[in-house]
Amino acid sequence: MIKSSHVAFFDESNWNKGRFRSIAMVSMKYDNYLELRSQLCAIASRKHSEMKWNKIDKETGMNVIGFVFENLHKIRIDVLTWDIEDSRHQSVIGRDDEQNLQRLYFRLMITVMRDRWPNHATWTLYPDEHSCISWETIKAYLDVHSLDTQPILLDILPFNFSFTRRYTNKGITPLKSHHEPFIQLADFFAGIASYSFKCFNKVALWEEANTTQTTIFERIGLEPTTLELSRNDRDRIPLVWEIKRRASQQKLGLSLKSTSGLLTWDPVSHLNFWLYQPQHEHDKAPTRLKPN
């Protein structure tokens, strides 16, 4: 592992299927990584060799969430979710989901490295292996945007500027997820973010059924809605609500019901669920290049 002041780990969920797709970034100081890695490995090894979202059980998921909230003062988790039915994606003919994923990876990385951590940090980035992404291209983009340029006021010479180094990216090194528990942690949060939007109706009905003796349907004289849950749903839905419960206890400003999915209002929060919003009318997903 390349020595740097900060490290970050990444994975995505449903990047090329379904309506809601997510990327998660887990970032921290390198010294905190050395301190916490063995604790996370212990959680992963209790029942499974990994703690990825598609393999998670309720008990392991609760342990993962407990670990995160106990250590939020040492780590950040930023999850970028996008909706392919928004104006950026839905009307785009020949949309290139691979290039779209690459651009959104860059957007997540630069936002967190520039705006969520102090200037002058040195970074090494460790995504899960992904053959569709050119990590060399992303690194080149990150390097170009690592400096802020500002004119020097009252300088007698024209075109004099000051430069602020926002970050230094030492490298992007893809890893196999089963070798790195923090990539598995990123997978868990990417998965739970997209799931909270995709299955929100189930999430909301489960909460209704488990918090009141008289359901809303009975109160208004309608037949109760039958809640049919798969085994995975029965494991996953309590995890969504556990994140919401703990975030409310710590006053993190995390919404669920009012936003039909996990969403953090203040991006400075160390647990930041971010739903991408198109920036302007020309903000469109990339399209596949036509053959010559």
Main sheet attributes: strand count, strand direction, barrel closure: 6 strands, mixed
Query: Spans with pLDDT under 50 lasting ≥5 residues?
Result: none
How far apart, in Å, are the first and last alpha carbons?
Answer: 42 Å
- So what's the CATH class of the domain at 6-153 and 163-190 and 267-275? Alpha Beta
* Largest beta sheet: strand ordering: 7-4-1-2-3-10
Beta percentage is 15-25%
Structural class: alpha/beta
Number of helices: 8
Mean residue pLDDT: 89
The total of beta strands comes to 10
- Assign the CATH topology of the domain at 6-153 and 163-190 and 267-275: Nucleotidyltransferase, domain 5
What is the radius of gyration?
21 Å
The SSE string, one letter per element, is EEHHEHEHEEEHHHHEEE
Helix content: 25-40%
* CATH-derived architecture of the domain at 6-153 and 163-190 and 267-275: 2-Layer Sandwich
CATH homologous superfamily grouping of the domain at 6-153 and 163-190 and 267-275? Ribonuclease H-like superfamily/Ribonuclease H
